[in-house]
Write a structure and sequence with these properties.
CATH topology: Spore Coat Polysaccharide Biosynthesis Protein SpsA, Chain A
Radius of gyration: 17 Å
CATH superfamily: Spore Coat Polysaccharide Biosynthesis Protein SpsA, Chain A
Strand content: 15-25%
Helix content: 40-55%
Structural class: alpha/beta
CATH architecture: Alpha-Beta Complex
CATH class: Alpha Beta
Strand order of the largest sheet: 3-2-1-4-7-5-8
Shape: globular
Largest sheet: 7 strands, mixed
Number of strands: 9
Order of helices and strands: EHEHEHEHEEHEHHEEH
Number of domains: 1
Length: 245
C-alpha cells in the first residue's frame, strides 16, 4: 500500500477498548491531508474496536487493521506493527495514541525532522510543547518524574522519554532484534530509546500539545508503572556500573 510520493510512511495506532475514539481519530488523520498509511493494531478489544476498524478499512483506502488475539499489551502491539512495517518496506514508521491526546496535524512536523534525525519524539516538555490536561497530582508526577528518572538512569539526553507520539526511520527498527525486546507495556517507549542511543542513532524532539482523553479509560495502572520502573532500574544500574567499573 503506497501513501504517495517517493517515501512511504506508516502510522501505527495500538488500540484496546477505543471504539468511541477510533472513528474520530481516523477522520482527523485523513482530513489533515497526511500522506501516510494507517495501521490499527487491536488487542482483541471486547468493546467492538476491531469491528469499527474493519468498517474504517472499508471506508478509507489507506487504512488497515491488524487483529491480535493473544499476548496483549501496548508494547507487544507496537512490536507487531513494527514487524509488519519493516516487512512492507515503509521508509518512516510512526506511532500515535488512539485516545485523541495526540493531534494528527502535528505529525507533519515530526516527519519533517527525520531529515535531521533517525528518531523523532513528539515532546510535551520541549520548548513550545505543553499539556492541556485535567490530571491528578499523582498522574502529573508520574509523567514528569518518570521522564526525568529515565533520563538520568539511562543517560538519555531528551526532555520527554515517555511520549508515544514518535517517528522512526526504517533502518532504526531493522537494526533492532524486535523478537528480543522484553517490554510488554509502555516501558517499550523507554527500551526503544535506550537501544537506539546505544546504537548511536540521532534522536531529536519536536514540540507537541498533548490533550487529555475525552472518552474511555486510561490504560495506565500500577502494573504498567512497575514494569517501566523495573526496566529503568535494571538497565540504568547496569549502565552506571559499566561506566564506572
Amino acid at each position: 500500500m503506497i501513501s504517495g510520493g517517493r517515501l512511504r510512511s506508516l502510522l501505527i495506532v495500538p488500540t484496546y477498548n477505543e471504539r468511541d475514539n477510533l472513528r474520530s481519530l481516523a477522520e482527523k488523520i485523513f482530513s489533515a491531508s497526511l500522506k501516510v498509511d494507517v495501521l490499527v493494531v487491536d488487542d482483541d478489544s471486547p468493546d467492538g474496536t476491531g469491528e469499527v476498524g474493519e468498517e474504517l478499512a472499508g471506508q478509507y483506502q489507506h487504512f488497515q487493521i491488524l487483529h491480535r488475539k493473544n499476548d496483549r499489551g501496548y508494547g507487544k502491539a507496537c512490536l507487531e506493527g513494527f514487524k509488519r512495517a519493516v516487512q512492507q518496506r515503509y521508509d518512516y514508521i510512526c506511532t500515535m495514541d488512539a485516545d485523541l491526546s495526540h493531534d494528527p496535524s502535528e505529525l507533519k512536523n515530526l516527519l519533517a525532522r527525520l531529515d535531521e534525525y533517525d528518531v523523532v519524539i513528539g515532546s510535551r516538555y520541549a520548548e513550545g510543547g505543553k499539556m492541556e490536561v485535567d490530571w491528578s497530582l499523582f498522574r502529573r508526577a508520574v509523567s514528569r518524574l518518570g521522564s526525568a528518572f529515565a533520563r538520568f538512569m539511562l543517560g538519555l539526553s531528551l526532555k520527554d522519554c515517555t511520549s508515544g507520539y514518535r517517528c522512526y526511520k526504517r533502518k532504526v527498527l531493522e537494526s533492532l532484534d524486535l523478537d528480543k525486546i522484553g517490554s510488554e507495556g509502555y516501558s517499550l517507549l523507554m527500551e526503544i530509546l535506550y537501544l537506539c542511543q546505544q546504537k548511536g542513532f540521532r534522536i531529536g524532539e519536536a514540540p507537541i500539545i498533548y490533550v487529555d482523553r475525552q472518552r474511555g479509560k486510561s490504560k495506565l495502572n500500577r502494573r504498567v508503572i512497575l514494569e517501566a520502573l523495573f526496566f529503568v532500574l535494571k538497565n540504568g544500574l547496569r549502565r552506571i556500573v559499566l561506566k564506572y567499573s
